[in-house]
Amino acid sequence: MAFITASWNPLGDAFYRKTDLYEMSWSLRDGLRDSLVAAAPYGGPIALLREPQRRSPSSRPQLEIYSASGGTVASFPWKSGPVVQLGWTVSDELLCIQEDGTVLIYDLFGSFKRHFSMGQEVVQSQVMEAKVFHSPYGTGIAIVTSSSRFTLATNIDDLKLRRLPEVPGLQGKPSCWVVLTQDRQTKVLLSNGPELFILDNTSCTVVCPPGLSPQDGNIVHMSVSFSYKYLALLTDSGHLWTGLSTLQEKLSDVDTKKTMAPKQMLWCRRPKSQQPSVVLMWDRLLLVVGVCNETIQYPIEDPCVLVGEMDGVRIISSSNQELLQEVPLVCQDIFKIASMAPGALLLEAHREYEKSSQKADEYLREIKEQSMLGEAVRQCVEAAGHEYDTNTQKSLMRAASFGKCFLTDFSPDQFVTTCRELRVLNAVRDSSVGLPLTHTQFKQLTLQVLIDRLVYRQFYPLAIEVCRYLKIPDYQGVSRVLKHWASCKVQQKDLTDDAIARAVCMKVGDSPGVSYSDIAAKAYECGRAELAIKLLDFEARSGEQVPLLLKMKRSQLALSKAVESGDTDLVYTVVSYLKNEMNRGDFFMTLRNQPVALSLYRQFCKLQEQETLKDLYNQDDDHQELANYYVTASYREKRLEGRLSLLQSAVDEYNKAKNEFAVKTTEDEMRLLRFQRKLDDEKGAGLLGLSLQVTMETLLSLGLHKQAEQLYKDFRVPDKRYWWLKLKSLAEKEEWDELEKFSKSKKSPIGYLAFVEVCIKCNNKYEAKKYVSKVTPEQKVKAHLAVGDLEGAADAAIERRNEAEIGAVLSRCSASNSLVIERLNRARAAIAKK
């Protein structure tokens, strides 16, 4: 496999290689000259602004956005102010920083999203230089103005501007500067001649890197690594100092022998790097300087732009794009000439096997003798992930599969996962997609973010295929893609509402996790209200339909949907909204067309808004309910005159409703109230507001028998009720003589057993016995038992020859009542014979 190592260049103990990513599909007439270029990491898009300082209204600069492979995404003339810097956010939004400190934000397709300012002081002094950086907080911006002051925003999505302290002796902009993120703090490191300063929120501190002396010259360029862990400083004498970004430890000090400042300087290292390096670019030269003090030189033909990645550096020119990176150790072990690593032997064994050569067995035996076959398979699988060429990937994975056949307890998980991930990576690396992700970047980015980026770029079919191929749950995968597709679909102005609604319904169907109301909301935002209504018809959950319909001012439809749902809370929500939005007349008319909603609103008004209920009944000419309302309202009225007035209104409404019974009852209530007021005035009885029965009970308890008698006659109280009331009242007051007189006044309509039971209840057996003789024969046994007269009860039961009554008496007898028991048993036997 010597041809693979042909492009490798040694650097200390490691090797570096350049991998061709794309032949750029753009056609740039003047290349990248006189252009402001910004490329996003992780294979992100490229923004290019030609001649950014051009200010002629007749010839404006052109802002162009391309995919990483050079495919045109958007292009539009720049009509705003002069741009100092372009940059990309972590979510692939383009930041355009102007001289006046205004930051304009565009999406990937060139649509303006929003803007913000870096502060009023910046407007006055203007921006000289700006940098876009990424930190744990998000995407940040740092600027330096013509007054030599720095302003920092660590997260543009939660904008908090920080003006950093002044730098002593600094005139204009510094020689060079970078943003550092350390210990969750964002700082600025800058040079002013040979001096280095660190700016934080409160102070400006002079720092001196270990091993870098003022004799090395002025610092003209500096670069921080992708992880913010390492720092590189270049002096005008060509000395390159590298060390930790904390400036506590030096890694190397290399004399590049280049006194001219480079156009760009970036770190090139990978996780677990053997030999990190710094890449410097001049017009015709690319220099890779390792911390081992060795260098690699690459000639450059066209102007290029370097893009820092977590595991290398992308080199973008007008014609092609390459990835410069340190060769992973596992790839070195396998492909290095004369390598005896297990992976190298397994790869060679598979090549010989495909030739049907017996050497395959010899290689396999050699690996097995070292007990390294499992390690060989692992190396081949890992190396395949790091390779960009699909043929090399296949060779390595086939070799791994071949070696796997000779293992009995080898877990296939890593092999299967790598196969799937490589297939996905090869698909997104295609120039038509333009996402040149390495396997390391893919692992850092995560699968979900990759799918989000495909969706954001509107590669919906590919995103869906990836989700299905990797068996991602629908709500995280396909459904999320379809939702975004539908949201974009409703914005297509060349299709009719019906066509879009049908297309969305056919595509989305009943996919879990997709809400038609969200899609409809997007359609409404785009000014397509009718399309939104059509889409809402597909929404199964009324609770999701109604809020948007209300927002769209389709209140009638919202009310209908709420009623159809059967959800009373939802109906109340709509009714409450309508009440606040409509005048009262229209509101009531709307409710009349929805009986369910009207009924629920009435229930609400009964509890919360009584006056509204009255207006509602008046609107509907509902005399019966309006009269009921007046009656209910009368109970809340404290003054008698007000209560009588409300009851009179109720009588009038009952008459209109032709409810004679209610009229009579209400008039009786009014008579009772007047009677109670009269007695209250005369006797101070406190009767007002009591019911008829309670009033009579109170009068009897107060000894006002004549007044109670009057009520009894005036209101035609049933005889039984009146006798019961008077019986209980006299017994409770222990007016036994009056009770006896009352019992003899006329024949009792409630019988005399009641007298017996009430007397017993009041613990007066003597008085109870007076009424036993008056009790009817059917109730004699009960009366005698009530007063404890077992012999009398026995006589009555035997006389009536009633077996049930005999049994009741027997159950009350004890052993001392043997004579009574004997008599009862003989009577029962006699009855049984007959």
Give the structure's gist in a few sentences.
It holds the Pfam family Vps16_N. This protein is 46% helix and 20% strand.
Give a description of the structure.
By secondary structure, the protein is an alpha+beta fold. The chain has a domain at 356-570. 46% of the residues lie in helices and 20% in strands. The chain is built from 33 helices and 29 strands. Helix 32 runs antiparallel to helix 33 (818-833). It starts with 8 loop residues before the first strand and ends with a helix. Residues 514-826 form the Vps16 C-terminal domain. Pfam families: Vps16_C (PF04840), Vps16_N (PF04841). It is a peripheral membrane protein.
Low-confidence stretches: none
Average pLDDT works out at 85
Name the shape in a single word: elongated
**Major sheet details:** 5 strands, antiparallel
The total count of strands amounts to 29
What's the helix count?
Answer: 33
Would you spell out the secondary-structure blueprint of this structure?
Layout: E1 9-11, E2 14-23, E3 35-39, E4 46-50, E5 62-66, E6 72-77, E7 83-88, E8 94-98, E9 102-106, E10 112-117, H1 120-125, E11 127-135, E12 138-145, E13 150-153, E14 161-163, E15 176-182, E16 185-192, E17 195-199, E18 204-207, E19 219-224, E20 230-235, E21 239-244, E22 250-255, E23 264-268, E24 277-281, E25 285-290, E26 295-299, E27 304-309, E28 312-317, E29 320-326, H2 329-335, H3 342-354, H4 359-369, H5 373-386, H6 390-404, H7 413-429, H8 439-445, H9 447-456, H10 460-469, H11 478-489, H12 497-508, H13 516-525, H14 529-536, H15 542-551, H16 555-565, H17 568-581, H18 584-592, H19 595-608, H20 610-620, H21 623-636, H22 640-656, H23 660-683, H24 692-701, H25 705-714, H26 719-732, H27 736-745, H28 753-761, H29 765-769, H30 777-787, H31 790-800, H32 803-812, H33 818-833
Antiparallel strand pairs: 1-2, 2-29, 3-4, 4-5, 5-6, 7-8, 8-9, 9-10, 11-12, 12-13, 13-14, 15-16, 16-17, 17-18, 19-20, 20-21, 21-22, 23-24, 24-25, 25-26, 27-28, 28-29
Helix pairs in contact: 2-3, 3-4, 3-5, 3-6, 5-6, 5-7, 6-7, 9-10, 10-11, 11-12, 11-13, 12-14, 13-14, 15-16, 16-17, 19-20, 20-21, 21-22, 22-23, 24-25, 24-26, 26-28, 28-30, 30-31, 31-32, 31-33, 32-33
